[in-house]
């Protein structure tokens, strides 16, 4: 069981989240707008920078995406973004072969 929840205090998280979401609300996982949370693009547990805004992107939080209804943040968990996006395209029936 990872106990990485202490990686950011809630105050720091809110500050960083506000800054990221002010720049863009396009989800890093599904590519739709209206993201309401941020997550590490490269997981901290895998060596990603904790507080580097370049390593943080908008993501759909607990409410999920209003467009595709994915729970992007829980889908991503602490996996690298590339892995999650690849996972998505492998089950994307709109994309075709
Ligand atoms: Zn999303
Ligand atoms: Zn979406």
From TrEMBL:
Top-level division of the source organism's lineage: Bacteria
Molecular function, one GO term: nucleic acid binding
CDD domains: HNHc
Entry keyword set: Endonuclease, Hydrolase, Nuclease
Key word Transmembrane helix present: no
Keyword Hydrolase: yes
Residues covered by the HNH domain: 27-60
InterPro entries named in the record: HNH (IPR002711), HNH_nuc (IPR003615)
The protein's name in its UniProt record: HNH endonuclease
Organism: Streptomyces cupreus
């Amino acid at each position: 069981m990872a106990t990485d929840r202490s990686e950011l205090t809630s105050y720091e998280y809110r500050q960083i989240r506000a800054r990221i979401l002010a720049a863009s609300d396009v989800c890093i996982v599904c590519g739709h707008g209206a993201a309401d949370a941020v997550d590490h693009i490269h997981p901290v547990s895998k060596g990603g920078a904790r507080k580097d805004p370049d390593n943080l992107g908008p993501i759909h939080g607990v409410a999920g995406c209003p467009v595709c209804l994915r729970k992007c943040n829980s889908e991503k968990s602490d996996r690298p973004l590339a892995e999650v996006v690849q996972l998505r395209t492998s089950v994307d029936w709109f994309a075709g072969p």
